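One record is kept unedited as follows:
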Amino acid sequence: MATTSKAALSKTEDTVTETIDAAAGAAPAQVRDLAEKSVKQAKDGYARLKSVAEETSDTIEDAYATATKGYKELGRKSVDAARSNLNAHFDFLHALIGAKSLSQAVELQSSYARQQFEVMSSQVKELSSLAQKTATESSKPFQQLASKSARYAQA
């Protein structure tokens, strides 16, 4: 994309230069100066626009890469939590099958429920913290871009 833009800019500059040179002999000096100033302003404006567009594109790419990394980690942690919970449930079922009495089975159930509540609470806290961190880090490039834009607008 950058090569195409550079080629287009170069071609536009060449065309404008040729047009100015062709009209230079026929136009009075004031008109020629005005045309040259207009062309210079147009070139400067295009260069600024191009720079802002490239910076915005880079910002979007950075935000996407950060979000992708964070959501992969969130997915991995979710799978780990599910695996851990499933293994704990199978261990509980194995112990429940081996219970010798109803009171032992009730005690196993109560212990398992209490333990799983604590484990799942911890997992939810960890996953929500990771999701919040990912969202915050993903938005940083946009915050920085907005800050630069505000400074540029003030200048």
Remarks:
- The mean pLDDT is 84.
- The CA atoms of residues 77 and 126 lie 9 Å apart.
- The first helix runs from residue 2 to 24.
